[in-house]
Design a protein that fits this description.
The complex is a heterodimer of chains A (111) and B (117). With 111 residues, chain A is mostly beta strands. In chain A, 0% of the residues lie in helices and 58% in strands. Helix content of chain B is 0%, strand content 49%. By secondary structure, chain B is mainly beta. Classes of the chains: A mainly beta (111), B mainly beta (117).
Amino acid sequence: KQEVTQIPAALSVPEGENLVLNCSFTDSAIYNLQWFRQDPGKGLTSLLLIQSSQREQTSGRLNASLDKSSGRSTLYIAASQPGDSATYLCAVNNAGNMLTFGGGTRLMVKP
Amino acid sequence: DAGVTQSPTHLIKTRGQQVTLRCSPKSGHDTVSWYQQALGQGPQFIFQYYEEEERQRGNFPDRFSGHQFPNYSSELNVNALLLGDSALYLCASSLFAPQTGTGGGYTFGSGTRLTVV
């Protein structure tokens, strides 16, 4: 059974810092991995999708990497802004096209 | 391009009642999945529908059932509601892909907040 863990559970940083969110998974036989952002009480917004054959994906100030063999992914956020404050969720796609989510990292960027 | 639409946005029900939640997938998507998200936790997979059939199911009791219509929209039904069913229910759509790792990602709706009292 796939298990996904996200560290840290919560993070508070001053504006402008570069930061890294971590995601680990126990079963490396994944098809892809997706990072989402969730604002309080809202749905999920897709940030980056990394296919199993890829090593990383970039979108603006966001960069996500994937190391399937070690069961790890990182989300790098450059020059953080208060508007980045949200919960960030990592989800892996195993057989059957179902997503297994981590518990999320709650990020607070202080002005 | 319309994304995933869910209705209603909020719902309050009494224990023992039944509820139906609705979802319209993103244009071009043919697969609908439902997730339950308790407060402070990551979403948990309930089930997935493709070609009007339940294809995958998570660890949820039979009180949770669903349906997919020919236009790919879907319903989630929960019978005999319990207090523990209070959660945000998320619908996600995707394009069913062969198991080659080249499929697209999931698009989520804004969710239905269900409160059972």
